[in-house]
Amino acid sequence: MRYKGPLPHRLVRPVNACVTALRASPRWGRPLRRRMTVVTYTGRRSGRTFSLPVAYRRSSEAVAITVALPERKRWWRNFTGEGGPITLELEEGVRTGRAVAKADSGGRVTVTVRLGGGDGDSAAGSAAD
Predict the structure, then answer these.
(1) For the segment 29-87, what is each residue's pLDDT rounded down to a tens digit?
(2) CA-based Rg of the chain, rounded to a whole angstrom?
(3) 74: closest CA among 6, 16, 23?
(4) 105 FRET partner, CA 20 to 30 A, in 66, 71, 77, 88?
(5) Nearest 5°: phi and psi at 11?
(6) 0.70 exceeded by the pTM?
(7) Sign of CA dihedral 90, 93, 94, 97
(8) Which InterPro entries does the annotation name (predicted)?
């Protein structure tokens, strides 16, 4: 039987740190920033702030984040129901918005972010780990 629980932190943290560093690098940053963003949100239950890199697609004032392996990840559950606030680092700068996660009949999860102001002045608020 294969392990189906969350991905181990000892694996996820170094990978996320590497992707975030590459995204900030002069050589690899520009191409990565076109498809990768860093999302920051506050856990609904813990109240802690989390940041992690994710792939995204953008159309006008909306961003779609398809969650890979959603059954093994927990972050997107902060945005079920009515969703919650989120901050994204996009090419034009830090943007805030409201994120809502939806699962389809096949178990695939998409987090849709409706972008708000472009100045990053409203921090991501209560979003469950």
Answers:
(1) 787 788 899 999 999 889 999 999 999 999 888 999 999 889 888 899 999 999 999 99
(2) 14
(3) 6
(4) 88
(5) -95, -45
(6) yes
(7) negative
(8) Split_barrel_FMN-bd
User: Which amino acid is located at 128 in the chain?
Assistant: A
Q: Where are the beta strands (DSSP E) in the chain?
A: 36-42, 49-55, 57-59, 62-67, 84-90, 93-103, 109-115
The widest CA-to-CA distance across the chain, in whole angstroms, is 48
What is the Cα–Cα distance from 28 to 39, expressed in whole angstroms? 19
CATH architecture of 9-115: Roll (2.30)
What 53-58 contacts at long range (C-beta under 8 Å, 24+ apart), as own/partner pairs, is 53/16, 53/19, 53/20, 53/23, 56/88, 58/90
What tokens does 70 get?
Answer: 């959603």
Q: How many CB atoms lie within 10 A of CB 100?
A: 16
pLDDT digits (tens, 9 = 90+) for 16-26: 888 888 888 88
